[in-house]
């Protein structure tokens, strides 16, 4: 329900949330790219878009880098998706609007509307606080983990779920090298 740019932006923002200390710690684009296995040139464009949307702040030069513009608990996934996604009702239908909206809806229409509604709710209600808490080994709500696991890439969801008996921090380090 959202594209690769949004996934990669969430990956980058999640790394900034992990190190959040009131925006004192800044990470370079290279650090973020390495930590999340993201392509550098694409990440640079994503970070520019996030900065223009006032979701992150950047400082050039030595000691510069990127940080979240607000506390992780104040930034929802929906805010990130809004930067990169254009809502187009024809994207919902696998027939590209060729059937739905031109007479009777296709057999998948109602189910896809339900999925879209679920994803929108997830994006609106989930904040980057979950990554800050996971990085600091704080307990995370099991229901939130279940929701994330249902719609997020497995590398992120598995890290949060504290799988294989590892702490969230250890689990995430093992998995963070995989592309989102």
Q: How is this fold's topology laid out?
A:
Elements: H1 4-18, H2 29-36, H3 40-52, E1 56-59, E2 65-68, H4 77-84, H5 89-92, H6 109-125, H7 129-135, H8 142-151, H9 154-160, H10 168-175
Antiparallel strand pairs: 1-2
Helix pairs in contact: 1-2, 1-3, 1-4, 1-7, 2-3, 4-6, 8-9, 9-10
Characterization of the model:
With 180 residues, the protein is mainly α. It has one domain (4-175): Arc Repressor Mutant, subunit A, CATH 1.10.10.10. The chain is 54% helix and 4% strand. It has helices at residues 4-18, 29-36, 40-52, 77-84, 89-92, 109-125, 129-135, 142-151, 154-160, 168-175, and strands at 56-59, 65-68. A two-stranded antiparallel ribbon has the order 1-2. A hairpin with a 5-residue loop joins strand 1 and strand 2 (65-68). It is elongated, with a radius of gyration of 17 Å. The model is unreliable at 154-180 (pLDDT under 50).
